[in-house]
Amino acid sequence: MSPLDSRLAQLLEHPAIWRGRSAAHVPVLRTGFGALDESLPGGGWPSAGLVEILTAARGLGELRLLVPLLAALTRATPARWSVLVAPPFEPFPPAFVAHGITLESLLVVRTAAPLWAVELALRSGSCAAVLAWVERARPRHIRRLQLAAEQGRTLGFLLRLESALKESSPASLRILFEPTRQGARVTLVKSRGGARGSVELSWSGHGDG
Amino acid sequence: MAEPLQRRSRAGQAAAAQLDLLAPPAAVPLGVPLAVPTAATATAPEALAGTHELWLAAYLPGLAFEALQDEFTSTGPRAVLEDAERSPRVLLVDEAARRLGIRPGLTLAAALALSSELEMKVRDVSRERVWLERTAELALAYTSRVSLEPPDGLLLEIRGSVRLFGGLEALCRKFEAHCHASRRRPVCAVAPSPLAALAGARAARALRVTSMARLAGALAPLPLAALRWDEDTLHRLASVGVRTVGEALRLPRAGFARRFGPARLRLLDELVGRRAAARRGFQAAERFRGRCEPDYELESLDAVLAALEPLLIDLEHFLETRQRGVTVIRCQLRHRGQPPTCCVLRLALPEARAARFAALLRERLGTLTLAAPVRRCELRTGPLLPRPLATEVLWHPGEHGGDGATAESLALVEQLRARLGRDGVYSLGLYADHRPERMIHSVEPAVGEAIRGQVPWSATRRPLWLLAVPQALRERHALPVYDGALELVRGPERIETGWWDGAEVERDYYVARDGRRAWLWIFRERAAPHRWFLHGFFG
User: Fold this and answer.
1) Which of B334, B382, B58 is nearest to B207 (CA)?
2) Please, which residues 109-128 of chain A have a Cβ atom closer than 8 Å to chain B?
3) What pLDDT was estimated at residue A109?
4) Could you read off the pLDDT of B148-161 as tens digits, one per residue?
5) Which residue of B has its CA nearest to A58?
6) What average pLDDT is seen over chain A?
7) Cα separation of A178 and B327, whole Å?
8) A116 with B453: Cβ contact below 8 A
9) Residue A197 domain-assigned?
10) What is the DSSP letter of B478?
11) Where residue A79 sits, what CATH number does that domain have?
12) A58 contacts: CB under 8 Å, gap ≥ 6
């Protein structure tokens, strides 16, 4: 390889450069589900960026998808906040503890207008992950949040309803979550790098134990 | 205002009269002389010797005037009156009034006859006290040991500070300049005993005595009036020819104690440092109060914030000099004809930076709607708290070896709380209780601090979401319905507890699945109507 090529390759490695199908190397966080890791660009959740998770309703199991990630992040040292913004119900601490999440680094934010809090938390740099249940968000709002997440080097999740599928979104990753008999089906709607497809996940613990 | 003030001072007049009257030691018929005066006043700079204390006394002869100087509206002839029972007399005058011939001691009528434009205020003793305390706060920059000598004096123990400020003279000059800049005109004197320093300052002498050996000699020419003894005692002493401290010190102790009381003898002993004199230390105010009254009414949030900014900078300075921080700031905005708007700022960690206060106040005030334009802003703090020392870290938060970034983490909490209120942002805590709704409680967010609380049983079969209030479910064929008929997957698990506090529950919990394949946590009451309720979601 000539020196020019290697310098070009180095340039193209830059996370801000998006080259169609080839996923740029951004640091990723393991999802905790092997099958999902394989299908996601880079092999996990992006460690900084915005992920949209779309569901038909609240409480279908979408939080379960993020539990392994939360467990890993809240147990990491040094601890950074994992923030739940405008959760639809009361987070039930015993179950969080049982799933290995440490409560100390979990922060709950209750607000009727969550976008401001989400942006502040993403931009502050003192959060590892921000989970936000958002009903209405316009593409320009999401664009703003995406930039804030990149700036604060924070992973943000927007949990939205399926109806948002019609709108375009500047989020770096967009997935559709549907519960199945054994677990859930996760469909990649949009990803940097252009990967598509769906993954079947199964989890145990509620009924079959 | 910088005009020198005149005070009707017996001490001053006496000092002038007695200046050259240091008589040679007279023969003392009885007893032992109290002290043998050495040479005249020791004003030459001396090296600090010994381990005794060194006191700087600051006497504010113009205190009554200085305390009221913001009240005067004119710059012309001004006077402060002493309101002595229907015959007010002039207490202090400024330079302009003095040139018109108005002297302290004149009656009000006489003063007005000399100048009809004379602006007069009656002295305000409580404001004088506040002014003296403010002066003491300023003096705390020079030593930590300051004590108030009401009504008009301060004592600073400066032994440890002399070297720091580059010598005694430099320290005195700096202190005086500092006082002048804040519109005070003290007379300063330095002596190894507090009473001697005070007496020197009150006699308007620039006394600079640093050694015990020279103290008695330096005090000798001071008039006894500088000790502020009562008129009767001074008169009796004068009638036996004793007018100065030196003459009093030469009197036989036994006779002096018999005729003028042992208390006076003790005072003389304290004066020359033969006896220790305890002083009560002054503590700076533990709270900050500030207010601003702009010339015009403030209508916008930005204008209010701009008006508050100087107050916040004052606050920062106030906290900085004390190495303290605050966690509570109360801001009150007053309107015309409307109750005031209050907002309280609470911080997670003691803070002292004005910029940070301003940013939080902006968020906090942004949530308020002003009922009317603002006429006055007031700022008050809660108690002052020790401030965690700010240290720079080598690694950035999140980098390997980097610290938990506690301060920044809590800064996020503060900023969120500034807008969403205290209850809007919390961490989850656990109570050991078997009733699910009783297990949840919110705790103060503190990243990295362990939250106490045990899960009383293996809680893997508990849902991640709980409904704050259980939702009653309809029934069809004795089975609950929620978005289609529910399929009971597992159960029942009985929770029957809480008889001791009146919130008794008797429930059979089931894990169920609905038509959308969501996992639900439902229960059936064991009591009579046996109703079904939805209590949580596993997702």
Assistant:
1) B58
2) 109-111, 116-117, 120-121, 124-127
3) 93
4) 888 889 999 988 88
5) B539
6) 82
7) 47
8) no
9) yes
10) T
11) 3.40.50.300
12) A88, A89, A133, A159, B537
A93 contacts on B by Cβ (under 8 Å): 428-430, 439-440, 453
Q: State yes or no: pLDDT of A85 exceeds 90.
A: yes
Size of interface A-B (CB pairs under 8 A): 187
Kindly determine whether residue A125 and residue B539, on different chains, have CB atoms separated by under 8 Å: no
Is A19 a member of any domain?
no
- Secondary structure class of B176 (helix, strand, coil): helix
The verdict on A141 touching B (C-beta cutoff 8 Å) is no
Q: How far apart are the first and last CA of chain A?
A: 57
Answer yes or no: is pLDDT of B178 > 70: yes
Report chain A residues whose CB lies below 8 A from the CB of B363. none
Give me chain B's average pLDDT, please: 79
Structural domains in chain B? 1-21+32-284 (no CATH), 289-386 (3.30.1490.100), 465-537 (no CATH)
Confidence (pLDDT) at A26: 66
Rounded Cα–Cα distance for residues B153 and B11 (Å): 15
Degrees (nearest 5) of the Cα angle B192, B194, B198?
A: 115
How many structural domains does chain A have?
Answer: 1
One-letter amino acid at B9 equals S
Tokens matching residue B491: 């159960």
**What is the model's pLDDT at position B13?**
41
- Residue B33 CA to residue B85 CA, distance in Å, equals 45
How far off is chain A from B51, nearest CA to CA, in Å? Answer: 51
- Chain A residues close to B511, C-beta within 8 Å: 206-207
Quick: pLDDT tens for B10-66: 444 433 333 333 333 333 333 334 443 333 333 444 455 556 788 999 999 888 888
Q: Which residues of B touch A201 (CB under 8 A)?
A: none
| B447 has a chain A CB within 8 A of its CB | yes
A3: contact with B, CB 8 A cutoff: no
Chain B environment of A60 (Cβ under 8 Å): 516-518, 537, 539
CB A103 to CB B440 under 8 A?
no
Token couple for B253: 């102790």
* Residue A126 lies in domain: 26-202
In chain A, where does DSSP find H-type helix? 3-12, 34-39, 62-75, 93-98, 114-124, 139-152
In tens, the pLDDT along B467-517 reads 888 888 888 877 788 877 788 888 788 888 777 777 778 888 888 888 777
Query: Which residues numbered 413-432 in B keep a CB inside 8 Å of some CB on A?
Result: 413, 415-416, 419-420, 423-430
Which of B404, B419, B539 shows the shortest C-beta gap to A61?
A: B539
The answer to whether B56 and B265 have CB atoms below 8 angstroms apart is: no
Looking at residue B118, what DSSP letter applies?
Answer: -
Tell me the CB-side half-sphere exposure of residue A198, using CA atoms within 13 A: 11
Does residue A35 lie within any of the structural domains?
yes
Taking CB atoms within 8 Å and a gap of at least 24, the contacts of A193-200 are A193/A21, A193/A22, A193/A23, A193/A24, A193/A41, A193/A42, A194/A20, A194/A21, A195/A23, A195/A39, A195/A40, A195/A41, A197/A39, A199/A33, A199/A35, A199/A36, A199/A38, A199/A39, A200/A35
d(CA A21, CA A19): 6
